[in-house]
Amino acid sequence: MEKLYYEKPYVKTFEAKVLDCRPGKDGLYEVVLDRTAFYPEGGGQPSDMGRLGEAAVLDVREKAEEIVHITDRQVFAGSTVTGIIDWERRFSHMQNHSGEHLLSGIVHKHYGFDNVGFHMGKDEITVDFNGVLSWDQIEAVETEVNKIIWENVPIRESCPSKEELSVLDYRSKKELSGQVRIIEIPGGDVCACCGTHVTNTGEIGIVKVTGLTKYKGGVRISMLCGKMALLDYQKKQNSVSGISVLLSAKSDEILGAVEKLKEEGLKKESRLNQLSKELFEKKVMEYPVSEEPLLVFESGLAPAELRQFCTMLYEENKGSIVLVCSGEEDMYQYAIGSRSVDMRQLSKTVNSRLNGRGGGSAKMAQGTFHAFMQDIKKVFQEELKGE
Ligand SMILES: [Zn+2]
């Protein structure tokens, strides 16, 4: 099996002979070729996709010394097929993988931490380090990494002998056996790796860190390289421009503008709470003190206001049990409370009769009735007043 993806990593189409094509899982086929440019999943890099003649290549895996292409239809053993790599996908992998080398190499150089986990997802790349880095530190790493990209240095690949390896200082995720493939970026990284990489660092385009979180005693870094970073920038630029217009603030001033907006919102909310409390106090006074259950309909109340109004009514002894409803048509929010009667069973009863949902404590229950006003009134009469 000739591994074209190592010999000529920029090969996008190739001819190969089909050695075997057998039925696989889920109606798919497993195809083995005499040579392939399809990279099989490995070392954190996802597999290539593309076509083998008429067949779509959905996945490629290396197992038991064999590279198996998973295809959606049969290709015939003994025939010659043209393989076409989904180049956009592969080149993005090469950009991201090469960028990850640089970032891991620079982190290792300055802080001595190892890359202990690497995942190339559809939307982001994550790299886990076994040590803690601050955002400032990772920004400094990012700057140094991009400097090496601008210098456009060659990324070298070699397969050193055992003797050469024994004196070489390189990063490796595990103890390696057999032939070790070394990827070297002068000034950036030396690492054992089985993936595909660009030839010069300039092709990475850019490395951008997009996230930093604590993870298993170290950190997890999210990053994007090349085209993925550009797409992310475009998306974020659209968000920033939109927010900037909405806030009538320059794009580099939107953070301050949002903070101000949030502060103003909190002040308004606090004022509104004060006003609604005063309003409820006035409304509560309109009801006489009573030992009878009380039903109140009030429009436009939010759940917190329902609770507040209901509590004020029963605490001021305006009813033995107070049911406050707010809503329209056949949908009402409610709060039911009492100083002396347990609300848990009662709320279950009214819920079951009024297509209701919700619950609460002994003093208060809250929820929704899927019922009309006259139904609520009827159930109130029957269940609470016992008429
Ligand atoms: Zn690599």
Structural descriptors:
five-stranded mixed beta sheet; Threonyl-tRNA Synthetase, Chain A, domain 2; 387 residues; elongated; six-stranded antiparallel β-barrel; alpha+beta; Elongation Factor Tu (Ef-tu), domain 3
Explain this structure.
- With 387 residues, this protein is α+β, with helices and mostly antiparallel strands.
- It has three domains: 84 residues, Beta Barrel (Elongation Factor Tu (Ef-tu), domain 3); 141 residues, Threonyl-tRNA Synthetase, Chain A, domain 2 (2-Layer Sandwich), CATH 3.30.980; 98 residues, Diaminopimelate Epimerase, Chain A, domain 1 (Roll), CATH 3.10.310.40.
- 36% of the residues lie in helices and 29% in strands.
- The chain is built from nine helices and 20 strands.
- Strands 2-3-7-6-5-8 form a six-stranded antiparallel β-barrel. A five-stranded mixed sheet has the order 16-17-18-20-19.
- A hairpin with a 2-residue loop joins strand 5 and strand 6.
- It is elongated.
- The mean pLDDT is 95.
- Zinc ion (ZN) binds next to helix 2.
- The site of zinc ion has 6 residues, from helix 2.
